[in-house]
Structures are given as structure tokens and as C-alpha cells.
UniProtKB/TrEMBL annotation:
The chain crosses the membrane at residues 38-64, 70-91, 103-122, 128-151, 163-181, 193-215, 247-269, 275-293, 305-322, 328-355, 376-394, 400-420. Its main location: membrane. It comes from the Bacteria. This is MFS transporter. InterPro entries: MFS (IPR011701), MFS_trans_sf (IPR036259), Sugar_transport-like (IPR052528). Gene3D superfamilies: MFS general substrate transporter like domains.
């Protein structure tokens, strides 16, 4: 759309069954309530989170135990991010013009295939780490592209923060229980425990595919315009510029911390059970934090929470300066769990509100979801490349340089706040500029 004229504002709620139709002004209670489709989508997301949480930490540990190669873990993550980015871009046409629910199911099914591949490869998995990473990236790309589009269609600005809070609750519950169960099984069964948890993930993904058939098929609308959303970045007045940069810096932190923290816990303890316990404790704290922040946060207060969250996420890294041991990692993990919802909920809700700001944006919601993921994955790729470069040229043995590297990567949310606050101002004022 042109950024030179004020966009037509839609009613507060987009009707699920006719997203481009005229919607009646809903009551406040209607805005905040969930229908059956939203509950089903949360169920599918919860199963996906449970299956992933059961094994994702231990895939990295499994490959590291075989290879003892820090750089390989980085390449494994980098392959995921690159393949995920390409999948988002290419699958956008499928989501918009054909059947987005089949894309969702394909993502879950490919996740199941990934764990089946690991089971078949066994001790040879490290040799095929890039293949496994590619499968993980492609499956996540399919799932999250379709999920985010459907999530946008069945929520509205009145219940989006609440939905994100519930999604965070489910993810935290899965992250609390599943890794702890995995740690117990591996501690008792040894290497056979890896076979058990990877098999369990495979089974849960299959269940997720089955339940996804209860989600209604959503109407395909319009033609997929490959570079439509990316062209928005060419205008200095486009709100997508600060949105994209905010997502980029969010991705830098995620790209490294999503695999490195769990690996560090295992390396300093050499114990899968303690890794599972670490995840249990931190996820339990995150569970309460997501519940509380999801209830407290409102669109007008997003910037305040975002600033508090970004500053706190940097400060909680200071214990690692003392020593890289289990206790210090646990303090860091608990602090992150407390403050992370303050950071992630405002960013997620703000970007999706931007996608729904007017009729033309809603008509191109698939393209904008692809742009959103492009920003995130560009940051993840950048962060992972920095990690690989650090490991290859400096190494992880020197404590101070490694902690400085982690501090720099972990402080990237501050830049997210700098850009997202401009986006929030745009959304609150309803103007065609984020400056």
C-alpha cells in the first residue's frame, strides 16, 4: 500500500469466516473471548510444543556427545535457520492460494520425520547433522507460517495479548515437564533413553496431525505476491522498517541462546537429569510470568513492559561473569524466565496488530507473516554466524571473552525496544509514520 495516505481503519474485530467482510463492533467481552477454533489451535500448538520440548534440548546434546564439536552445533542451528527462512518464503504461495491447514499438517508431519530420521541414524546422526537441521528448519517453517496466519485470522487486538499469554503458558508447561521427564528417562536408561524420548516426540507429532483435522479449512484468498511485503521496506516512512529491525535484533539473541544455554548446562554438569531439572525450574517460573504478564499487559502499556524486559534480560546475565557453573546458569535462567514474557508478548502482539491495521494489510497477511519471519530469521542467521566465527577463531575455553560474547548477543533486545517503541507509537496514533 502507499504510505502517503492514511489507511482505512477496520473495525476492531475481523470476522473469522469472512476476513474481508464487514464486521460488527463487538463488545469488550467478545473481543477478549476465545472460540472453539482458537482453543483447538492452542491445543495443536501445545502438542507441538510438548513434542519439541521433549527432545529439542537433547538433540543438541546427542549430537555434541557424539562429535564434541561446538562449531558443528552452530552449523546445525544455522542450517535450521536458513532452511526455515527459505521455507517461509516459498510456502507463502501454498498458504495463501491453496490450503493453509495442509501446510500446518505438513510442518508437524515433517517434524515427526525428523525424529524418525534420528532414530534410524542412531550414532551416525552427527555425520548427518546438516540433514537433520534442514529437516527441522523446513518443518518449523511450514508449521509456524501456517500457525501464524491462522492465529492472526482467529484473534483480534482485544484478545491477542491473552492468546499470546496462553500460548506462552502452554509452551512453558511443556518446557517445564517434558525435558525433566526426558532427563529422568535418559538418566535411568542411558543411551536407550534417547531412543525412548525421540520415539515419544514422534508419537506426539502424529497425534498433533490427527487433531489438526478438527481445525476448519480456511478460505484461500487472492494471489501470493512474492515481494509485496519486502517492498514496504523501501519507504523510509513505512512502519515495517522499525518492525523488521526489531525482529532482526530479537532473532540475534534467539539464534544463539535457543541452542547454547541448554548445551552449556549439560557441558558443566555432564548430566541429562540436571539439564532436565534446569528446564523444569526455569519453565515453571516462566509459566507464572507468562500468566501474570498476559493478564496485566495492555496495548497502551506494551512499551513500558518491553523496556523493562529488555533491560532486565541484559542484567540477568551478570551472574555468568562470576563463574560458568550450574548455580550461576540457574540464576541466569530464572531471571530470563521472569522477564522474557515482558519482552516477547509486546513484540509479538505489536507486529500482528500492524498486519491487521487496515484492509489492504489484512489482504496481504501471508506476505507480511513471511516478512516477519524473514526479519527474525535474518537475525538468527546473523547471531549463529557470529557464534560460529567466535568458536572457530577464539574458542570457548577463555572465560572472559566468551562471557563478553554472550553479553553482547544477550543484550540485543535493547535494540529491539528502540525500534518497536516507534512501531507502538504508530499503532497508538494511527498515523502513517513510525518516526
Amino acid at each position: 500500500m502507499s504510505t502517503g495516505s492514511k489507511p482505512k481503519q477496520l473495525p476492531f474485530l475481523f470476522v473469522h469466516h469472512a476476513p474481508h467482510g464487514e464486521a460488527k463492533e463487538p463488545s469488550k467481552r467478545a473481543e477478549q473471548s476465545f472460540d472453539r477454533q482458537a482453543i483447538l489451535l492452542l491445543t495443536v500448538q501445545g502438542l507441538y510444543a510438548a513434542a519439541t520440548a521433549l527432545s529439542i534440548l537433547f538433540v543438541n546434546v546427542f549430537i555434541w556427545k557424539i562429535s564434541k564439536n561446538y562449531a558443528l552445533i552452530g552449523w546445525f542451528a544455522l542450517t535450521q535457520h536458513v532452511c526455515g527462512t527459505l521455507t517461509f518464503f516459498l510456502a507463502g504461495k501454498w498458504v495463501k492460494q491453496w490450503n493453509k491447514m495442509n501446510v500446518l499438517r505438513a510442518g508437524i508431519a515433517l517434524s515427526a520425520l525428523q525424529y524418525l530420521t534420528i532414530l534410524l541414524l542412531g550414532q551416525q546422526a552427527a555425520r548427518y547433522a546438516l540433514l537433520i537441521g534442514a529437516l527441522q528448519g523446513i518443518s518449523a517453517g511450514f508449521f509456524w507460517l501456517a500457525f501464524n496466519v491462522v492465529y492472526f485470522e482467529i484473534t483480534n487486538p482485544g484478545n491477542r495479548d491473552r492468546f499470546n499469554g496462553w500460548a506462552g503458558l502452554l509452551g512453558s508447561t511443556a518446557g517445564m515437564i517434558a525435558p525433566w521427564v526426558s532427563g529422568v528417562l535418559i538418566s535411568r536408561l542411558g543411551d536407550r533413553g534417547y531412543t525412548v524420548i525421540f520415539s515419544a516426540s514422534l508419537a506426539i507429532f502424529i497425534l498433533g496431525v490427527a487433531i489438526s483435522f478438527f481445525l476448519k479449512k480456511r478460505e484461500a484468498q487472492g494471489q501470493y505476491e512474492w515481494f509485496y511485503a519486502f517492498r514496504q521496506l523501501s519507504s523510509s516512512r513505512s512502519p515495517w522498517r522499525p518492525a523488521f529491525m526489531g525482529l532482526f535484533f530479537q532473532g540475534i539473541r534467539e539464534g544463539v541462546f535457543m541452542f547454547l544455554v541448554g548445551l552449556l548446562v549439560y557441558i558443566v554438569t555432564k548430566d541429562e537429569f540436571r539439564l532436565g531439572t534446569y528446564s523444569f525450574i526455569t519453565s515453571a517460573v516462566a509459566l507464572g510470568s507468562f500468566w501474570l504478564i498476559g493478564k496485566l499487559i495492555k496495548p497502551v502499556s506494551r512499551n513500558t513492559y518491553l523496556l523493562l524486559g529488555t533491560v532486565a534480560l541484559s542484567l540477568v546475565m551478570t551472574p555468568l561473569w562470576v563463574e560458568m557453573n550450574y548455580a550461576m546458569l540457574l540464576v541466569f535462567g530464572i531471571g530470563t524466565a521472569i522477564f522474557f514474557p515482558m519482552y516477547i508478548i509486546p513484540i509479538t502482539s505489536s507486529v500482528f496488530d500492524l498486519i491487521g491495521r487496515d484492509e489492504q494489510a489484512v489482504a496481504h497477511r501471508v506476505e507480511y507473516v513471511v516478512l516477519r519471519e524473514a526479519g527474525l530469521n535474518a537475525g538468527r542467521v546473523a547471531g549463529t554466524i557470529l557464534y560460529i566465527g567466535f568458536v572457530v577463531w577464539i574458542g570457548t575455553e577463555k572465560h572472559i571473552p566468551f562471557i563478553v560474547f554472550l553479553l553482547l548477543i544477550g543484550s540485543s533486545p535493547i535494540f529491539s525496544w528502540f525500534f518497536i517503541r516507534r512501531l507502538s507509537r504508530y499503532l497508538q496514533q494511527g498515523k502513517n509514520t513510525a518516526n
